[in-house]
Sequence to fold (250 residues):
Amino acid sequence: MDGFKATLLNELVKLAKKKKIVAAVILSVLVVLIGQVAVTSIKHGLGLRVVGSTEFPLVALSLITYTVLPLFATFVAIDMFNGEFTANTMKLTLLRPVSRFSVFCAKVANLALFIAANLVLVMVLSLLAGFLFNMTAFSFMGLVRVIVSYAVTFLPIFVFSLLVVCLGNVIRGGLAVFFLSVISFAALWVLGAVFSAYSSFFIISMFDWYTLWISDALNLSKILRQALILAGCGIMLFTAGFYCFDRKEI
Fold:
C-alpha cells in the first residue's frame, strides 16, 4: 500500500507539471465565459431569459462533455502511457519496488482525479457566473440538480478514458492512439444516434446520462441498467488495459 501511495503521489506531481493541464483549465474557463456572454447577450439584446443561475451550469456541462473534457482526458491518458514509453521514462517508474498493477492503478487514479477536478472547476465557475448574472433565479433544489449532474457525468467520461488507456497500451505511437480515439468517439456517437434503441451500449451516448438523474420522473430501471453497462464496460476496459500494460516489454 505504501508503494502504491508513493507511486500515486509521483504520478500526481508529473501530471501537475504538464502544460496540457494549464491548457485544459484555460479552455474550461473560456467555455464558461463564452457561454455566459452568449446568454447575457441574448437576455439584454432580445429581452429573453435563456437560463437561470442554476440552469447555466447544465448548459456548460453539456458543452464540455463533448469537447474539452474528453479531449484533454485523451491527451492525459496518452501522455501517461505512450508519452512515457516513447521518452523511455517508463523504465524509471517500473524500476521502483512496486508492482506493475500498482503503477497502472496509480496512473488510472490520476486520470480519474484529472476528470473529477475539471468537472468541479467548471461546476464552480458556472455556478458563480450564473449566480452573479442571474441572482434571483437561484434555488437550493437547482443547486442539488447541478451537483448531481456533474457527479454522475464523471462515470461515462472516465469509462471513455479507459478506452483510450487500453488503446494506448495496444499501440505504441501516441499520434495513432489519438486518431483512433477520435475515430472511436465519432463512431460510438454515430452508432448511438443510428441505433437509438441500443444507445445504452455505446459509451458516448451516455455522456448526457445526467439528464435521467434530474428529470421530473426518475426512470430508476433505466438508470440502473445504464449504470451496470458503464460499470461492466469500465471493468472490461480496465482489465484489458492492465493485461496489455503488464505484457508490454520496456
Summary: Residues 105 and 220 are 31 Å apart (CA to CA). DSSP finds ten helices and no strands in the chain.
